[in-house]
Amino acid sequence: MPLGLYTLGQTRALYGSSGSVTPKDVGENFYQELSSEFDSRTGAVLISEHSFEERWPTWEVHPEGDELVYLLEGDTDFVFWIDGSEQIIRVSRPGTYVIVPRNTWHTARPYAPTRMIFFTHGEGTLNAVEPGGKPLTI
């Protein structure tokens, strides 16, 4: 891997099961390219930064592993769908993080502009308008 300087907002890092890290520029078909270029992300962790000011339009679930979400700045509710109801953890202190358990539908509802780093075992990730709903193609 060549040496370089990257920003997670523009170039994600794929931490492979072999211990290698591969930078991947974000483009229009980023997630589709990940699946084809990295064998569906088998055993890999995607490290990414996302900023958002509005509620996420979908829920998501990661069936193959937990996700760690670290707050850089902002204030948001992380909403989990567990046993048929919402459970909410407010994430408002920079430097704190939440763990999304494997197979748990989740979304976010910010109170203020929010920026977070996501460590995602993304293999098999699904998105839907409602938890457990018909999967969307993203």
Detailed description of the structure:
It is a single chain. The chain has 138 residues and is mainly beta. It has a single domain (11-128), classed as Jelly Rolls. The protein has one helix spanning 30-37; strands spanning 11-15, 21-25, 45-52, 59-61, 67-82, 85-91, 97-100, 105-120, 126-128. It is globular.
Any idea what the radius of gyration is? 15 Å
Mean pLDDT: 89
CATH architecture descriptor: Sandwich
CATH level-4 homologous superfamily: Jelly Rolls
Q: Helical percent range?
A: under 10%
Global geometry? globular
What portion of the residues fall into strands of 2 or more residues? over 45%
The CATH topology, please? Jelly Rolls
Report the top-level CATH class: Mainly Beta
How would you spell out the order of helices and strands? EEHEEEEEEE
Number of strands: 9
C-alpha end-to-end distance: 29 Å
Regions with little confidence, pLDDT below 50 for 5+ residues? none
Number of domains: 1
The biggest beta sheet is recorded as: 7 strands, antiparallel
| Structural class computed from helices and strand pairing | mainly beta
Number of helices: 1
